[in-house]
Amino acid sequence: MVSDQHVNDVAIDIRSVSKLFGDFVALDNVSVGILDNEFFTLLGPSGCGKTTLLRTIAGFEDVSSGEIVLYGENIAGLPPNQRPVNTVFQQYALFPHMNVTQNVKFGLLRQGVDEATATRRVNEVLDLVQLTPFATRLPSQMSGGQQQRVALARALAPNPKVLLLDEPLSALDLKLRQAVRLELQQLQSDTGITFVFVTHDQEEALTMSDRIAVINNGQLQQVGSAEEIYEAPKNKFVANFIGETNLIDVNVTSVSDGKASCSLPGGMAFSCSAADGAITGDGHLSIRPERVTLVSPAKGILRGTVTRQIYLGTDMHVDVQLEDKGLVKVRVQNSSSMRIPPVGDEVGLNLEADAARLLVD
Amino acid sequence: MASRKLDLRYFPGFRPLTFLCLFLLYAPLIIVMVYSFNDSISITKWGGLSLRWYHEVFFGPEAPKFQTAAFNSLTIALIAATLATAIATSAATAMIRAGNFKGRSFGFVLINLPIMVPEIVTAVATLIFFSAIGFTTGYLTIVIAHTVFCIPFAYLPIAARMQSIDNTYEQAALDLYATKFAAFKLVLLPLMAPGIFSGFLLAFIISLDDFIITNFVKGAGIETLPTAIFGSVKRGIQPNIMAISTLLLVVSVVFVTLSYLVGRTGEKSK
Ligand SMILES: Nc1ncnc2c1ncn2[C@@H]1O[C@H](COP(=O)(O)OP(=O)(O)OP(=O)(O)O)[C@@H](O)[C@H]1O
Ligand SMILES: [Mg+2]
Fold this sequence. Notes:
Chain A is of the alpha+beta class and 361 residues long. Chain A is built from 8 helices and 20 strands. Chain A has 2 domains: 228 residues, Rossmann fold, CATH 3.40.50; 116 residues, CATH 2.40.50.140. In chain A, the strands form 4 sheets. In chain A, strands 6-7-8-3-9-10 form a 6-stranded mixed sheet, sandwiched between helices. In chain A, strand 11 and strand 12 form a beta hairpin. The longest helix of chain A has 18 residues. The two termini of chain A are 42 Å apart. Chain B is globular, with a radius of gyration of 23 Å. The mean pLDDT of chain B is 88. Chains A and B meet through strand 6 and helix 2 of A and helix 7 and helix 8 of B. Bound molecules: adenosine-5'-triphosphate and magnesium ion (MG). The site of magnesium ion has 2 residues of chain A, from helix 1.
């Protein structure tokens, strides 16, 4: 285990990194500090620049400007083979002409480790990923899940300071993916190696990471724990991308100290938390569907008509068309004590004040 | 099956035309092969089955001449194909792995142009070149000329193979602390081996079969198998020429088939 005093050291400091492909800006002035011994996830839609950022850390892509500092050393100019960083590739890229042992040993031998030590380390790592019985198999003779573990073992064997993983689970089926998620998390905490994990799957990001960086169009949107990002999204993009949310048009009357007062459609006053940088005037309030409650029309601070119900097993999804404008999605638990109003009924809506948040547009 | 009407087999007259073409292509070859087993000295009348012309090729009065020619052909093909394969492999690496450098498409044309230039033009040009720089024609000039015109033939399967290999393998090698050279030697080269072998075989057979260029640059006193055959034919067609042609044909077919199969199995196991 890593001693406590190191837990908060910065492993990789990405300082104002931009990357251009011709005129196209793939990374736009990205700055983020990835901490030592952290499971850090880069999350964003397809084409947002996640792989590009990972490749600049690995050294496969030069940065157009900015610095990448690894434990105090600027590595931005170094070739990949001089960076103490290893990658698990999306399609694994296992050497097809080498068996599992030879694949895993490759990095060790290239580092100049002697044969005996390398063999010992290979056995250790194969044991870690439970592949010992497959040591002499060729990659083509293994299942996707097994190949994925070989790729992991190969990248872990040289004991890198940072492990980069580019959507390593995307080629696996759902069931396997869920099992491997847990294994990966376990592996990270067992080895104490900093993991930088790329995914476009928000569920994967929320369940596995210590911290998440949300990226869109090459720009960093927000960095924080799963809870922070889900409960306190900074802007519309993050709120929409992570989970389901309602965006309610409001008129903001005042913002101070992270608190905002505003008037809802229909005129009722409402106060809630505000994201940094929120301003007065027209704005958007974000609230998760499970934080909206259905009440009788007289008791609600919003009023509308039920237009749709979707049965989701444990939950029921209800769409409510507001009287003024806009649609609010509500998620109610299915329980016998509660009657869910049928389509066409007038209903009132209450918003949990501590779960509502004024966003930066 | 929906496109039955578009199936070529249903065009009228297509089938007879195909058979006519195949007949014109293969009938002469088949006649030569069959008559090489003819017991009669006539090249048109069938006199029963025999191996006498093959015996004649190896032990007859002309045997020493053909043996020397065959030896020359094989060693020249071996040297030229080896050199051409090495050059083609380097060229393919530069063309396909070195990014989009300036002059890349020009390089591509340059490498492949010799296939399109009429061979007689290349032959004359090569001869003029050698005499201009005062090179005496002989074994060495044949090797040089063969190496050069074999390059594009070796290049094709090698480049095709390299194009099919994803460059993440080399990136993975670099990521695992390999130098660029080690990544090439330990990862790219083994993955390319089928393509390289296929290219070598193709270059070998192209060199072995070449007549026109060889005839121009060989000078006096040295013969390869094709020029020796041509020399004999000029003095009248003997049945032993059919035997020797059949042997050459078999060697060619074996090599080309091998080249194709090696290239293909490599593709599959990728
Ligand atoms: N070599 C390149 N040349 C030009 N444009 C590129 C290059 N590599 C990436 N891009 C562009 O940069 C953008 C970001 O690409 P990147 O591969 O980082 O996306 P990503 O976030 O990993 O997406 P995905 O989830 O689909 O893998 C894309 O729009 C892509 O087209
Ligand atoms: Mg990607």
